[in-house]
TrEMBL record:
The lineage of its organism: Bacteria, Bacillati, Actinomycetota, Actinomycetes, Mycobacteriales. This is Rhomboid family intramembrane serine protease. It comes from Nocardia flavorosea. Residues 87-218 form the Peptidase S54 rhomboid domain. Residues 20-33 have a biased composition (Low complexity). It is found in: Membrane. Keywords: Hydrolase, Membrane, Protease, Transmembrane, Transmembrane helix.
């Protein structure tokens, strides 16, 4: 990179976007109002999650009409090449209306909270969780089983919200993580095997994906803390 102050590598899309200068802006140029306010971010998060849940219900409606054939063909089939595409589709599928209804409230709440601190960051975290959960389930799931359901995302969002504040050392996010732990922490027992018909592998690797996402997406804050300790942090611009 040439010209201007080096930004360094960043895994946080929201922070990276905020660092890009506006077209025509030069040194000392006024930055104007912040691009996004908290209220707008929350509104966008609510719209995205509402649309996602509507999509889940539309898919379940079609699936129920055709006798749940989509579940059998698009779920994760562990260690089968034909089952790899299930990594992309499994979180969108549910085995029954009860299955979907049981996931709806956690999806709405935890998904909204994940996106509310930044749409770009939240979507990046969701992508990490989605892939880690799917790939881990494909590698370790039981033979001749099909794994479906958005609960892998629920467990990932849960651990992401709990851990990211600690990784980033941000008080507001730590408080949010504690509140989430109080209300939803009991779900974490679902990562243990022993419940028939429950994809504990999806829960476990979803939770692991949330931890990975929390660590990766807090890299900017952790790097800044290291720079402060060593006295190499860049002065405010």
């Amino acid at each position: 990179m040439t010209g201007g102050a080096p930004l360094g590598a960043s895994f946080d899309p929201d922070r990276t976007s905020a660092l890009r200068p506006a077209p025509g802006a030069g040194p000392g140029a006024p930055t104007g109002r912040p691009r996004f306010t908290a209220g707008r971010a929350w509104g966008r998060a609510a719209v995205v999650m509402a649309a996602f849940v509507v999509l889940l219900y539309l898919i379940e409606s079609v699936d129920s009409i055709i006798d749940y054939c989509i579940d059998c063909t698009a779920g994760i089939a562990p260690r089968e090449v034909d089952g790899l595409d299930g990594i992309l589709f499994a979180p969108l599928l549910h085995g029954s209306w009860d299955h979907l209804i049981g996931n709806t409230l956690p999806v709405l709440v935890l998904g909204f909270l994940t996106l509310a601190t930044g749409i770009g960051r939240g979507l990046a975290a969701t992508a990490v969780i989605w892939i880690v959960a799917g790939l881990g389930t494909w590698l370790t799931g039981g033979t001749n089983t099909i794994h479906i359901g958005a609960s892998s995302l629920v467990f990932g969002w849960l651990t992401y919200l709990i851990c990211r504040g600690w990784f980033a050392r941000r008080i507001g996010q730590i408080v949010l993580g504690v509140v989430v732990l109080v209300f939803y922490g009991s779900l974490l027992w679902g990562v243990l095997p022993g419940q028939d018909g429950i994809s504990w592998q999806g829960h476990l690797f979803g939770a692991m994906g949330g931890l990975i996402a929390g660590w990766v997406l807090s890299s900017d804050e952790r790097r800044h803390r290291r720079q402060l300790r060593t006295g190499t942090a860049a002065p405010p611009r």
